[in-house]
Amino acid sequence: MSHAFYPFVENVESPANLSQQNLEEKVVLNASEVHFPARIAVYDDAAAAPRVVIVEPADVRAYLEEITKEVTQLSHQQGGSIPFMVIREVVENLIHAYFIEPAISILPGGNTIRFSDQGPGIKEKERAMEYGTTSATDEMKKYIRGVGSGLPYVQQYLLDKGGSLLIEDNMGRGTIVTISMGTAISKEDLSRPQVRPAPISPSYAQTYVPDDVPDIASPRPRISDRGQLILAYLKNHESVGPTDLVNAYGRSVSTWSRELQTLDESGLTYKQRGGQKRLLTEAAHRLLNNY
Length: 291
Hints:
It is globular, with a radius of gyration of 21 Å. Helix 2 packs across helix 3 (84-92), helix 3 (84-92) packs antiparallel against helix 5 and helix 8 (242-249) packs across helix 9 (253-265). The protein has helices at 20-28, 60-77, 84-92, 125-128, 150-160, 187-190, 225-236, 242-249, 253-265, 282-290; strands at residues 2-5, 38-42, 51-55, 103-106, 112-116, 164-169, 175-180, 269-271, 278-280. It contains 10 helices and 9 strands.
């Protein structure tokens, strides 16, 4: 069962009156019980504090279904279009974290959702994206398929729709999985060779200075998931700077500054004169429009 969370009004006690250490030791040994509530943060505006919905511990199947239903409904209310089944695949992966402190953030617009936990984490992130690779135990397979299809399916679906999936380590421990719809470009498009282009319109002609033009026969460097998020942001905004990206996706200014520099070097963005804002090159516009 879910309910709204009102800070300073209610005090949610740790389940079963166990100490945090003893509780987590028990949870790690048992994936058939849920001890922690799931918190769903809905950001109506990047500049405002989120409203929070709590999904209380329940039977594993009921818990997974309730989280999936709430996240789907709340994200669609924000204008998102990520399907129920895609969200469900990511929610079911919480079983690998033994449901330790799940927190889900629905960012403005509803098309970017971040799932975090404080479980054991994912050491081999690349392999987690391969079909057939799984760490599911017999106990977990009572509730999920456990055949290594979930995250690869989600990644492929989102890529086909121009979106992306990003797996990162949480602070301290655990995992963060971020899924975005319509905020990335396909890996196939990103792998095509391209020449450094002219500015996207005459009004920017004086701010664009070509440098180290890549050979047309050379393959374009691989664009990271964060780089894809930047391109997606620029598809809907005229320009972007590190602070804009922090407000939209989190992380740090230095992280986004490095990603923007990489895109500059790839010939997909360029810097406005006298500032840190970037714009899309014409080739990047064509790439996004043709996808």
